[in-house]
Amino acid sequence: MIKNRLISMFILFSCSSGVLFADDFNQFLNKAIETSPYLQSSAIGVEQAKQESYKQLRYENPTLSGEFLKYKPNDGSNDSGYNISLTQPFRLWGVSGDKERFSQAIVKGANSEYMLNTSDFIRNISLYFTVYAQEKMLLDLMLDATNIAKTIYDISQERHAVGSISRADMLQAKAIFLEQQTQYDSLNISSIESYYELLKLAGIKEKIEINTNHTFEVKKSDISENPELNLLIHKKDIAQAEAELTSNILETVDVTASYSKEPDQIVNGVALSFPFPLFNTKYEEKRIAQLEAKKMNFLIENEKNSIQTEHSKLLIQRELLEKLKLKNENVLKLKMEVLEMFLEKYKVSQTTLMELLNIKNQVIQTKENLIKINIALNQNAININYIQGDINAQNLIN
């Protein structure tokens, strides 16, 4: 009976970390994305960029001017007149196309920045969730270890009652059981702190039960959709569009329509005026924009190299973690068999308390190793997906 109770604790351990009727991680993440003030603020940045693009495309207002004229002919008479003129700047055809491309680049850049902020937000919450999940799983493991220590203490009491072990051995089993309870309480405090830190990071006020049994899968993709790389590419596009825009020496021409009322005649006229670029050819502005685009090219190349290196490292790390997980699973099976045998031997006085506790601790340690390996695999998947550009709200939730 005691043996079955002990083994069932380990068998059910993997299911104990979940909470009935708790949200899974995707539901929790969805709530965070919908309610996050940080993401709402970032979304406003996109709308601001759209308004900036509209500002780039709008036409200048016309200028209306009027004059009152006083005439004094040679015959000594007095007379009066007036002049009204309306001037409208007209954008040259090539400039309109350049402004359109520049405004589109601004909006795309803002969208890329929003996606980067969203991806960072999701990655950070995902990584912190794994921290909370690890502490919650270790807490559950410690509860199982406490229950096993209680089982060993119960056996020790029975053996002491019949005189097969000393009082010192029985008290030692009790001390170990009480120590496990203390460790459980300490881990519980840490787990609660991590839980509320996770809620704070997500921007969620109400308490939500979260199921920690969530596995992050690696999505198949490449680094071309990396959010940091995409933002740099769109910044380069903005710089190039600005360089093309500033290369226009002439941007507008002024067309003026005038109406003059003179004493003996009415004069209607149309005038065309444009700047004469004798000294200011906008060479410096154009050169600065070109250099900015060139600088962005180097930054993009550097970012690609860095991302590729990190991506390769993470893939190798994942392969090694998978092998390590398999080895620990095999070790756990063997140690579980040994624990079962030592438990039976302890019941019939064929082994010592210390030997049994040593085997029990080895089983607990191996289970702890597996928890940490699984958490490391989840964190590895989160970072790989982020690098590949797969970690966004739509892909992760759906």
TrEMBL record:
Keyword check for Signal: yes
PANTHER family registered for this protein in UniProt: OUTER MEMBRANE PROTEIN TOLC
Subcellular localization(s) per the UniProt record: Cell outer membrane
GO cellular component assignments: cell outer membrane; efflux pump complex
Signal peptide location: 1-22
Protein name: Type I secretion system outer membrane protein, TolC family
GO molecular function, one term: porin activity
Keywords: Cell outer membrane, Membrane, Signal, Transmembrane, Transmembrane beta strand
InterPro entries: TolC-like
TM ranges: none
